[in-house]
Amino acid sequence: MKLLGRIARDRVALAGLLVLAVIVLAAIFAPVLATYPQDVTTYHTAQRLLPPSAAHWFGTNQMGGDIYSRLLFGARITLMTAVIAVAVSVLIGVPIGLVGGYWPGFVGDGLMRVSDVFLAVPQIVLAMAIAATLGPQIQNVILALSLTYWPFWARLVYAETRNAKNEIYVEAAIALGVPPWRVMVLHILPAIAPSLIIRTSIGLGGTILTASALGFLGLGPPPPSPEWGRMIADARAFLPGAWWNAAAPGIAILVLVMAFNLIGDGLRDVLDPKLRGQARAVAAPAEDEAGD
Amino acid sequence: MTSESESRLVLGRRELALGAATLSVAAATPALAAGTGKFITANNNSYDTLDPHVVFDIGRIASRLNLYDALVRWTDDPPKLNMWLAEKVDISPDALTYTFTLKDAKFHDGTPITAEDVVYSMERILALKKGAYGLFSSVVKPGTTKALNPKTVQFRLTSPYAVFMAVLPEMWVVNSKMVRAHEHNGDWGAGWLARHEAGSGSFRLTHYDPAVGFAADRYAAHFMGWGPKYLDSIEFRGILEVASRVLGLEKGEFDALDGYTPYDQIKRLRGKPKVKILTEPSLRTMYFIIHNRRPPLDDVNMRRALCYAFDYNGFINNLLDGSVVRNAGIIPDPMWGAPKDLQGYTYDLDKAKAALAKVKGPMRTLTINALGGYPQSGQAAELLQSGLAKIGVKATIQSQPWPVVAARLGDEQKSADLIPLWRSAYFADPHNWTGYIYNSKQIGRGNLSFFSNKRFDELTDKALVLVKQADRQPLYEEASRILVDEAAGLFIYNTNYYGAFNDRVQGVRYCPIADAQDMRWQWLA
Amino acid sequence: MRLLGLIARRLVWVPATLIGLVVLVFVISHVVPNDPARIIAGENATTAQLAALRHQYGFDLPLPEQLLRYIIQVARGDMGVSLYTQTPVAGEIWRRLPATMELAVYAMAVAVLLGVPLGVAAALRRNSWFDHTLRVLTVSGLAIAAFWLAILLQLLFAMWLNLTPVQGRVSDFGPSGITGFYTIDAALAGDWSTELDVLRHLALPVMTLAFPAMATIVRFTRAGVIGTLGSFFVDYQRAMGVPWRVTVWRYVLRSALTGTLTQIGLVFGNLLAGAVVVEAVFDWPGLGQFAVNSILQSDYNAILGFTIYVGVMFIVVNLLIDVGQVLLDPRGR
Amino acid sequence: MPPDSQNPTLAVESLVTHFPIRNSFGIRTGWLRALDGVTLDVAPGEVLGVVGESGCGKSTFGKTLCGIHRASGGRIVFQGEDATHAGSAQAKRLRRKLQYCYQDPSASLDPNWTIGRSLAEPLVIHTRLSAAERMARVHAALEDVGLAREHLSLYPHEISGGQQRRVGLARILMLQPSLVVLDEPTAGLDLSVQARVLRLLMDLRERHALSYIFISHDLSVVRLICRRVAVMYLGRVVEIGPAEAVFGAPSHPYTAALLSALPVVGGERISERFRLEGEPPSPGRLPGGCRFRQRCPRAGPACAQQEPELTPGGEGHAVACHFPLAS
């Protein structure tokens, strides 16, 4: 809560936080907020491709579905995919990075070689291969993203753990006879937590981009699920006529990812221990990899 | 035995002879002839191979049609079968021996086309077992095709086959000398021919890049001669995105689009300057393949429930804006053999529920395999899914590119429950829509629905050995009724062809079997 | 010596990483086996044909043996043939490689040439309206979906403004030349109308790819310059009376560039990832499109071949960057 | 032989700690011989000073004793038990009694933990005391080092340098050790603070019957509080003996050189930067024979032939030199 307060002092981060809150609430209350909540699975073929109007705020799509309503339900898919995928990849990657960094010799090298293999091709390619093999289902998309995203966390935590292990207080703890798991969990993990939190925020944004790209390429959750990437792909066949079809989900992705990135930026200024006490403008160039 | 009488026997019409007559575009006076430049077609399929004997679909027909010739060729709408490389054909009274006499014609490299080349081409199809193989395999055995002399070739069928002439346009004649020279480990030159051309067609290949498409220059010495105006060169590009194709046409980057442009785009293009739309009745029915063997779809009531749960009106009149016409059966209504009074299914959820109630086996979630890149296929899938949901049947949609769907189609285990797609006119005969795709002998090949019905088999088998259309027609009509009664498939509509062209394009001769991609007739104003 | 050591140490791991990659992708693509024999045979194949094909291609062997055979085959430089087109995968990839590389190189060039000066300018005018505008721009650059941006640019520049073509790499089949980079081949041939045509085709995909890359570079450069400006070293320069402009251009920029260089590997990786979707939108006949198609069609050999190539490319690029860093940074030499 | 050798708290025999040297290929090309055969004893209650230039192996010695570094050879016998290759259970028990006090206690405290939590941690690891009992012990230790209880809820960066040292000492005391390795306990402190810390150390020694190994490069401090002194050079003990003997009449030329750099009272303070002729050779590339010979004014041909052994010279004074200075 103290953290929230500190972020809130940064105006840009606050904006991100507010936008995120709005989208999360919209996703939660989608059935209430949607003007045509049944339009995710039912169609009104007579009302297809209508431009935005009072009845259909963002217009209708090629099946006659209300885009505004579908967008709200799509937010659920997008948020759920990103949150679960990032959480799983963190849960896999962080312990691997910790163990690898703590025992940097044979064990660490081995683990890092494995993660190197995953990092040797763009994440989206591996994710596509996995999603395509397992079939376009939401759980497969999440699995594909998790399986390809953990190496990033493993790498990050590995490097940070190796640094932290050089800290005298960690050596002191080890000398004191503190068992390894306790050193990792109670000393090292809290030390690297700030950078993990920052990366998580930015990683959520990146994962949304990757997930929507999978959807765009037809590897996302199957129709009629209103996944944003798929909505854009479906809309393409009706461009440039029915432009609203592609505009709404595109903007939704932009806004949501931007919110995560802004929060990440704000968190960096607040959390990064290396920056404490320094001028905000000197913000360290934390890799802004949107799609890592 | 005269060629005329026999051919009339086979085709049951005079069309063959008439077609040949209309097509006698004798070499025009050279003084008037004029090249009119380059013509670019944006196609929805990519040309990943040029080998004419490994693919057999309308989407990629342009490379075969323009680079190669066959003994006979379909043209125009309604389709007419014309003598092409063949001067004439003699058909024995038992309808087992077909003897063709060849015209004087030369391949692009100048070698004359001989009976030997025809024999080689047929043997090649039978050996590669791809493309149109399934059309010939049941009646033509390897080694039975003979070159009687350089100008005469003879086919010996194992049994009467009423559609033999109708499918012969898919037997493209390749330059046997050239292909033999590039054979490698007995591959019949497959490796080489995928990337090169060894034909005699109206155009000769100049560029080919599987990632882009192919381009060809006019072959001035083509044996059919040329009209007063023609194209100097043609180019076909595989462009997977509808939007890109349409925008390109609007901007004048392309001169024509494939025949699968969604009607929404056609509507939009209608108002555009420099664009013209050609509308022709077509022979392409849209339907859902239903897996007739997998429970609960093996129960006719289940299949009927499906057919009652599809919103035909919403699909045809709203989603497609009335651009197509309801077709109750699988045979396109303009085709003979389609019963004119056929009562199909209507969107009727009560009847659907009633049928569903009679289903004995346990219910499960059905799988619909839509074709990626074809918006209509996906829309039909979503509409059926939505209808099914209303009668309490769950369905999931998997959208995949055609090659992936195709690779699973014949596999009883892996094929999806329902696949919304089209049945194009590969040859203009009711067999194309009935026996070939529903006869139980074709299971695992043409019959992708795993449908088997004794009466249907009898009818379609008999229709293949009869020669007169009048005799065959009632058989096909009854067969068609059986398919509807059994709900062997979910039949939706027969399409119209909407060709989008640059308004400079002239001389288009549309044919349902070739769309408008036979480029020898066209020119630019 | 240290440099050679660095290179050698990295190269030692290349085969291991690549074999790991092959195993990984092999396992992924074989988890749920689509029947590759069916893909080759087409829809009309009979059971006997399928069995023959399976035997011919070794699909009937146990998976580990198939894998081993594949690795040995690749080690001999043979990537196998595409299941769909029956043509060698390696040839297909080589044909497409220049298209993607040309795209990536131009995008990178645009990103660096615009990104570095903008980043420096933003740092020098910290908290000005310019800085703020740029911040908004860079944040959105990293938040925009590449495929959506591509469609947007297509509509704007190709449709409404009619400035560029909608798709493709060139109007015709492209200049023939040794490099496969159309811009270079056309220039070498002196074919300026083709050159112009190629550049017009390049514009939109390059813009799409360069935008997020540029955003990354701007942010790093800005942070790097601000960091350097705050260092004692710069204070010293000022105290010594070195003109401000000289300090900025000669010292600050150099150190900022070193920092940016470390990002180029990252940016390059993102460019390749971006190419996968951007090529799909622009029908760009490159590796990205190849990857999407092969994956969508479960063309195992093509997917494996592509992964190996991209893996090698990544490793080489990262190595070059490490070498560059060692060369630029006197401490590391 | 040193005094009290019958029953020493700690007996170290030929202790060796080598670190691998890797080239840029990651292949080991040699060994960095940080500790190269150290033999010495520490009697109960004794304060043994270990002096030498930076990099001579003093800290490695201390850390090897406490198990922070793994010994490559030799033996460490602590209170009659072999602590060299102690298995985990034995190591855990021994570590309670053998504690290492870091040069910079602020760095040795987790910045994310409160002082109280850091102090209680050793008890959590090594004892089964209840939370209340642990608190009581923490309070006792705090009192011992003269800190107020208010400090318990503070973070390390919120207290002063001197207080940090006290916290460091308190943490050492938590487990009631018998031998403490003090690594540069006064480095970086003001003179007045230094004096207070030293007084505290002496105090604690008496109160808890501690032995110290006092590692320092500050000869004057060592002379002040140590009864016995070991001089280390490049991983070896070159001279060891009673402080008066070593400082009063050094036998090893190196000790003499060290002492000559010691400023007279009122003069310049000794700093780490004091210099002999030339630089010490790298511990990774030692010369053959005596490792001091390249810098030694008395080096003769014998010195290049053979490395001198530590030879007792009476009264517990021993020296490793072929040509020791006459006392």
Q: What percentage of amino acids of chain C are in beta strands?
A: under 5%
Q: Which class do the helix and strand fractions of chain A yield?
A: mainly alpha
| Structural category of chain C | mainly alpha
- CA gyration radius of chain A, whole angstroms: 22 Å
Q: Roughly what is the average pLDDT of chain C, rounded to an integer?
A: 83
Hey, which two chains have the biggest interface? A-C, 58 and 62 residues
Summarize model confidence as the mean pLDDT of chain A: 85
- Given the structure, what is the number of helices of chain A? 11
Describe this structure in words.
The complex is a heterotetramer of chains A (292), B (525), C (333) and D (327). With 525 residues, chain B is α+β, with helices and mostly antiparallel strands. Chain B has 18 helices and 21 strands. In chain B, the strands form seven sheets. In chain B, strands 9-10-12-2-13 form a five-stranded mixed beta sheet. In chain B, a hairpin with a 2-residue loop joins β7 (146-149) and β8. The longest helix of chain B has 17 residues, at 469-485. Chain B is globular and about 70 Å long. Chain C has 13 helices and no strands. Chain D is of the alpha/beta class and 327 residues long. Chain D has eleven helices and twelve strands. Chains A and C meet through α5, α6, α9, α10 and α11 of A and α1, α6, α7, α9 and α11 of C.
